Amino acid sequence: MDETKKYLYILTTGPEVAYRSASPFFLATTAALMDHDVSMVFTIKATGLLKKGLAETLTVKEGGEGSNLQFFIDQAREAGVKFYVCAPSLDLNDCTVDDLIENDGVVGGTAVNEMALESDVVITF
C-alpha cells in the first residue's frame, strides 16, 4: 500500500462490556502497522477504559495471551496509535485527566468533528 491514510476510531463502550473493547484496539493497531496515521477518541463510557490500573483487570477472553485489555492497549501504543479523550466524558466517568493512562490529549466536540472531517476512514464502536 503506497498511500498513508488517516484512520479515526471513535469508542463509546466502556468497562461494563469489556469483551467488546479489544476489537477497536486490535483494528487500530493493525492499521498503524500498515503505516497509516491512526487515532482513537474515547468518549461516553469508553473513557473509563483508560483509567489507571483498570485495563489489567478487564478480561476480554478467559485464558491465553491477550486475556486482558491492557495487552491490546500496549500493542496499540507500541504501534503508534494516538489516544484522545473527549473532555465532557471525564465528568461522566468521575475522573480527571490525571486519573488516566498516558494519552495524547483531551479534545472537545469541535476537535473531534474536525478530526473526523480530516480522516479518510472513521470507524465507531
TrEMBL record:
<dbReference type="InterPro" id="IPR027396">
    <property type="entry name" value="DsrEFH-like"/>
</dbReference>
<dbReference type="InterPro" id="IPR003787">
    <property type="entry name" value="Sulphur_relay_DsrE/F-like"/>
</dbReference>
<protein>
    <submittedName>
        <fullName>Sulfur reduction protein DsrE</fullName>
    </submittedName>
</protein>
<dbReference type="Pfam" id="PF02635">
    <property type="entry name" value="DsrE"/>
</dbReference>
